[in-house]
Amino acid sequence: MSLAQCRLQALMVLATILLFSAMLALNEWLFRWLEFAPGINFVYLPAGMRLLCTLLFAEAGAVGLLAVSWAVSFLLFFPGQFERPFVGGIIAAAAPYSVYRLARWRYGLHASLANLTAPRLLVLVFAYSVASPLLHHLYFAWAGQDALLRSFLAMFVGDLAGTLLVIYGIKALLSLVPAPILRTGV
């Protein structure tokens, strides 16, 4: 890997960390009152940023998500604990990355996302909104937690709502940008 490629990968990791952190702060500001449990909201905008960063940045996005998820979990959601934030951070990065890899395999998803159609994007949003709560709750069941169905449903609804809001919110913002700017990069 060349120095330029290393720099690009590092920038994508940093962008993921910053975008996720900004979305988490926005979610706390707008939707804190919809919190079901620490890390589980009925609207969770960071879920959308997880999927988006993974689709855009692939492995660099997953690495950035792992780093920021560990930081948030250890410092904000579960201070003083080790296992839950450690495993939770891995799951938070693995779920969107697994959906991304599935899309690469199933749809032949290009790195440019040129062949990511609107129906395929909806499938990925739904798949991610199931995968993340499912992986988290498999861990919760293994750890002996209870009330799994209610928290699974809350996390599914929150991840789905947050992902749809982020993906289509960004799509709406991009539609406001004049087409020549998007094509030329000016």
Task: Output the keywords.
7 helices, globular, mainly alpha, two-stranded antiparallel ribbon, single chain, 2 strands, 186 residues
The beta-strand count equals 2
User: Uncertain spans, ≥5 residues at pLDDT below 50?
Assistant: none
Helical amount = over 70%
H/E element order: HEEHHHHHH
Strand line-up in the sheet with most strands: 1-2
* Largest sheet entry: 2 strands, antiparallel
Helix count equals 7
Shape by Cα distribution:
globular
- Distance linking N and C termini: 28 Å
* SS class: mainly alpha
Strand content bin: under 5%
Using only C-alpha atoms, the radius of gyration works out to 17 Å
Mean pLDDT across all amino acids: 92
Question: Would you kindly provide a written description of the structure presented here, covering whatever features stand out?
Answer:
With 186 residues, the chain is mainly alpha-helical. Helices cover 78% and strands 3% of the residues. It is built from 7 helices and 2 strands. Strands 1-2 form a two-stranded antiparallel ribbon. A hairpin with a 2-residue loop joins β1 and β2. α1 (3-31) runs antiparallel to α2 and α3 (59-77) runs antiparallel to α4. The chain is globular, with a radius of gyration of 17 Å. The mean pLDDT is 92.
